[in-house]
Amino acid sequence: MPDSLSCLRCEGVMEAGFIPNPTRGQMAWFKGEPPKTYRESFMFGRQALMVVTHRCSACGYLESYAMQPASPST
């Protein structure tokens, strides 16, 4: 992800942030379809990608990304 993003709508400056999930902290993205009976247990064994949302400081447009975790530096 570049250090600075421009808004796709008005070319304003995008600010990084997140939208919290009120019951579990930050929202996360999971690959695939959710099960027919939605339960938290479907998340076990799956990789979660944290969702980062950028907001345009000029027009308020929101753009979200499911970010890959950073590789540990050696």
Would you give an account of this structure?
- The protein has 74 residues and is mostly beta strands.
- It is built from no helices and 6 strands.
- It has strands at residues 14-17, 20-21, 25-26, 28-29, 49-56, 62-66.
- The strands form 2 sheets. Strands 1, 4, 5 and 6 form a 4-stranded antiparallel sheet that branches. A two-stranded antiparallel ribbon has the order 2-3.
- The protein is elongated, with a radius of gyration of 15 Å.
> Which oligomeric form is depicted?
single chain
Return the average pLDDT rounded to an integer.
Answer: 77
The string of secondary-structure elements, in order, is EEEEEE
Beta-strand percentage range? 25-35%
Poorly predicted sequence stretches spanning 5 or more consecutive residues: none
- Overall number of strands: 6
**Structural class by SSE content:** mainly beta
Anisotropy-based shape: elongated
Give a quick account of the main beta sheet: strands, pairing sense, barrel closure. Answer: 4 strands, antiparallel
Fraction of residues in H or I helices: under 10%
N-to-C terminal Cα separation, in Å? 21 Å
Compute the number of helices. Answer: 0
